[in-house]
Amino acid sequence: MLTKGTVKGIISNLVIVEVEGPVTQNEIAYIDHEGTRLMAEVIKIVGKNASVQVFESTRGLKVGSKVEFQGHMLEVVLGPGLLQRNLDGLENDLDKMDGVFLKRGEYTFPLDEEKLWHFKPIAKEGDKVRAGSWLGEVDENYQPHKIMVPFSMKGEYRIVRIIGEGDYNIYEKIAVVEDNEGNVTELNMIQRWPVKVPITEYSEKPRPYKLLETGVRSIDTLNPIVEGGTGFIPGAFGTGKTVLQHSISKQAEADIVIIAACGERANEVVEIFTEFPELVDPHTGRKLMERTIIVANTSNMPVAAREASVYTAMTIGEYYRSMGLKVLLMADSTSRWAQALREMSNRLEELPGPDAFPMDLSVVISNFYGRAGHVILNNGKEGSITFIGTVSPAGGNLKEPVTENTKKVARCFYALEQDRADKKRYPAINPIDSYSKYFEYPEFQDYISSEVSSDWVEKVSEIKTRLLRGKEIAEQINILGDDGVPVEYHITFWKSEFIDYIILQQDAFDDIDAVTSIERQKNILDLVTEVCRTKFEFEKFTEVADFFKELINIGKQMNYSEFESDSFYGYVNQLKEKISNYQLSDITVK
């Protein structure tokens, strides 16, 4: 028997309901508004009153409206056909909706109910299975989509019957399982799971250590992220967050890409919808959208739906991770997600924390980031969710609560700097403030030494030190003037500029320079390190600037050349020739 209730108070999207029976935290309810059912979620219970956040506009809603509680939390439908979908935070298929604006109370099913999928069984009759076990697979946009025992099933089961290879829709019975007490359950290709409950059907969750190649040099070389790692990108408006996100999504070594637009401006979400279908996947040559899912909520949608979108995206990511796939989840922007939490906290009249954010903001962010990671499944296979969120701090203030609390849990910090963006030094990642804590992991150090180069960590540390020293000298030159510091200082400064132009700066719109393989990044790192270690002899500081500007120009042309082509080696030889005219010691350019 479903619990009923009556609306007693309305504060924007927060509705106070007097209940007539038992309700639970995070339970879903529907409010009847003139024949339209508005979905809501219980967020607080005090006595007979339940506070619910409504996922729709509450305009026109009146005290006395009837409410019906559903007995379950906010759930998503999981099954084949999610790839290439445009969903909202409640997993409605936006492509099935008409009109410019979403209609209140209109909910659509996210999957194609008519499509036939070619099912190939993996398990066989008599096999022992449990939640998350693979029963079979279908081909979903060239990805092996595993059909699994529903995550909600507890204990061990025996397969009584499993259907043979063939074409079936998502509702057809593909298996029958029996528990130890003889209870029989029929299974099809879909299942449901509450978004705020992590999917934990795996045997182990070790520390991640495998490098996730993104093709972006300032990330892979200086501050790498790993498969199953976490990172975030804070930056003010105009610092290039969107282009950097697109670059990572397009180029990263991931099987599945999920974009969560939580509270973005409508025009930015439209850009995602229009640009992503046109992007070509460099790994397959087909459209990137084939392995992408977009979960979108714009800033003019109710704040409750904005909060739900990130959980919906993460749950879908956990579903694909359970298939042994590598998932990349990008959230833009977690600041607006946190603002949604702040609004609901204020309406509940809770004790405010810094900048009026909830007191438990750090816990909420930590729990959410903790759902990402690299896991070993019960069958020994591996899967991962790499989560990168962007933060939009007001005025570029990196000391505000969302940035500060995210820094506590994310292992990679990519600070986009307004000054670098103004100078057109893209990607505008500040090399001094940014960091990757994965460098501290012995597992990662062993992996990078064996897979890339034994001296990689040492050279990266040297490059970072030179960048810091160059910044310090730039400040001295700015105060004392060019002729106020020794020529050696100018050499040190211009070596840091050489690092900046050749490694850090990258053209996201050039076919060659947009993505740099790890092999080429090793080549560039070796080259730049050798140049920086070379001792040069100059009489005047003007000679230093002219010489390094020529080197930088040759190096940039080298970056625009196809790796190991004739033109590439031509530019390398030009660098060697230029350097030999001013060096005091031999240099070997690799």
Automatic annotation (TrEMBL):
It is an enzyme of class 7 (translocase). The keyword Nucleus does not apply. InterPro entries: ATP-synth_a_Xtn, ATPase_a/bsu_AS, ATPase_F1/V1/A1_a/bsu_N, ATPase_F1/V1/A1_a/bsu_nucl-bd, ATPase_F1/V1_b/a_C, P-loop_NTPase, V-ATPase_asu. PANTHER family: H(+)-TRANSPORTING TWO-SECTOR ATPASE, V-TYPE PROTON ATPASE CATALYTIC SUBUNIT A. Residues 215-436 form the ATPase F1/V1/A1 complex alpha/beta subunit nucleotide-binding domain. The gene is atpA3. GO terms for biological process: proton motive force-driven plasma membrane ATP synthesis. Keywords: ATP synthesis, ATP-binding, Hydrogen ion transport, Hydrolase, Ion transport, Nucleotide-binding, Translocase, Transport. Belongs to the ATPase alpha/beta chains family. Residues 10-71 form the ATPase F1/V1/A1 complex alpha/beta subunit N-terminal domain. Residues 110-196 form the ATPsynthase alpha/beta subunit barrel-sandwich domain. SUPFAM superfamilies: C-terminal domain of alpha and beta subunits of F1 ATP synthase (SSF47917), P-loop containing nucleoside triphosphate hydrolases (SSF52540). This is V-type ATP synthase alpha chain. It comes from the Bacteria. ATP binds at G235, A236, F237, G238, T239, G240, K241, T242. Its EC number is 7.1.2.2.
